[in-house]
Amino acid sequence: MTTLLAASCGRVVESPSAPARRTPASPCDERGDTFAGDVKLARCLTEWFWEQRFQQAGETYRPITRFVAYHGEDGPDCGDQKSVPDNAFYCPYGHFVAFDATWLQEMYDRMGDGSVYVVIPHELGHAVQAQLGTRFRYNAERELQADCYAGATLSGLIRAGMIKEESGDESELLTNLEAAGDPTDAWWAPDAHGTPEERQTSFAQGFNEGPSAC
Ligand SMILES: [Zn+2]
Known about the structure:
The protein is mostly helical. The chain contains 7 helices and 3 strands, in the order ααβββααααα. The two termini are about 20 Å apart.
């Protein structure tokens, strides 16, 4: 995320006079050096990020109830919708997130850990939308806001010292945006996620300006 981060310097609107930071203690026990560890860490840190945001607004973040790894065809139903392979989704019935771990690990192995740090914050972004009761005219708006939330989450976590950007992360993240996240959510229009350019723009907006810009 080096370049994205550099691009955001000077345009960070959230903490213009942040004091020098010590290395903060992580709120999460998980270690992010394996696929399984990164997935759990991404979930934990993303929910921690939203907890802080909700708290700042005088609200209480409602954590997801389940975080389900499945493989191919054996995913959980969402309402009367069957889950499908090669997907990740947020289910409003039961307020949970599920992901095809085979699919996600394949991306992780091929494209790096950024895949996990795009997909999981994107899906948890849908959980936040559900909690906020945000309404959308078009599905693409919902999806682009989730991308924006994912960008905001990542930059928030970097600024909080919870994750460190590595060189190559930016292209990794942007590549992942093209491939990632609930492509076949049956209860929204299937190909209404926005173009890759729109998704990247939305992600970058959240990254540079924070969740209130989403
Ligand atoms: Zn989505």
